[in-house]
Design a protein that fits this description.
By secondary structure, the protein is an alpha/beta fold. It has one domain: Rossmann fold (3-Layer(aba) Sandwich). The chain has eight helices and seven strands; from the N terminus they run βαβαβαβαβαβαααβ. Strands 3-2-1-4-5-6-7 form a seven-stranded parallel sheet, sandwiched between helices. Helix 1 crosses helix 8 and helix 3 packs parallel to helix 4. The longest helix has 29 residues. It is globular and about 45 Å long. It starts with 11 loop residues before the first strand and ends in a 7-residue tail after the last strand. The relative contact order is 0.15. The structure holds NADP nicotinamide-adenine-dinucleotide phosphate.
Length: 253
């Protein structure tokens, strides 16, 4: 049955930033596809997502870690493996944005955005990848952005971080493809989440963005979830090093 190729039965996933937005949608979709899921948030924000996944009959735990802190990044993987036994799927979703003209951008904001959006995903992928290589397989999905391709407006650190996410996705994919560990990224378009609240609150930017989206609407977090299930499943076994746009046609325009 072709649909069996999409099943995640028996797999264990770690999803960062799973308390809200895209991460919560992905974590729940992985659970619906059959996976047990460790749901991470900065604080205790992933408890609800985790409870919804347990209600499906899967195992799930909520974990906390401030990903701007390297010791917390390092501890997170051990906590997930310690509770759920292993990790077959890592979704590096947590991310942040700071908006300011480049001349006003502070070193602190630059360093923070690069740490949370780029260094933390790489360091988690390195740690989890090592376990996956020892097991002979695994799936890593990094959440990139349209700003992996475009420069954006007033968000230079965010654009730099997401450009880096797309590039390290390909670098790890090349190294690990022959060892059964597939590394891909999803580049969401404009999705209605906390991340884009400032844009949606600005009537001019909001209108300009909407007018450019061929699909004629902002995306919802669930619009990203199907692509994540696909990339984590056997159906995508020969897909690696890819940055999958899920953007309502934005980049095609
Ligand atoms: P969101 O609701 O703001 O989600 C961001 C998540 O990242 C939150 O769960 C947040 O956790 C977590 N996070 C942020 N800083 C953290 C830190 N220092 N330590 C630990 N966790 C941290 O927005 P979203 O749109 O769903 O964003 C998810 C991902 O999609 C991000 O990587 C974002 O860059 C990317 N993305 C979004 C869009 C879009 O249009 N929305 C487009 C392209 C890419 P807490 O809530 O616990 O702080």
């Amino acid at each position: 049955m072709a649909l069996d190729w999409f099943s995640l039965d028996g797999k264990v996933a770690l999803v960062t930033g799973a308390g809200t937005g895209i991460g919560a949608a992905i974590a729940k979709a992985l659970g619906r596809a059959g996976a047990d899921v460790a749901c991470h948030a900065r604080g205790d924000g992933a408890a609800e997502t985790s409870a919804e996944i347990r209600a499906l009959g899967r195992r799930s735990i909520a974990l906390s870690a401030d990903l701007s802190d390297r010791a917390a990044q390092d501890a997170l993987v051990g906590e997930a493996v310690g509770t759920l036994g292993r990790i077959d799927i890592l979704v590096n979703n947590a991310g942040m944005i700071r908006r300011a003209p480049a001349v006003d951008a502070t070193d602190e904001d630059w360093d923070l955005v690069l740490e949370v959006n780029l260094s933390a995903p790489f360091r988690l992928a390195r740690r989890v990848g090592k376990l996956m290589l020892a097991e002979g397989g695994g799936r890593i999905v990094n959440i990139a952005s349209l700003l992996s391709f475009q420069g954006g407006i007033l968000v230079p650190a965010y654009a730099a971080s997401k450009g880096g996410v797309a590039q390290f996705t390909k670098a790890l994919a090349n190294e690990w493809a022959s060892k059964g560990v597939n590394v891909n990224a999803i580049a969401p378009g404009y999705i209605a989440t906390n991340n884009t609240a400032a844009l949606r609150a600005d009537p001019t930017r909001s209108r300009q963005i909407l007018e450019r989206i061929p699909a004629g609407r902002w995306g919802e977090p669930d619009d990203i979830a199907g692509a994540a299930v696909f990339l984590c499943s056997d159906a995508a076994r020969y897909v690696t090093g890819h940055v999958l746009l899920v953007d309502g046609g934005w980049m095609a325009r």
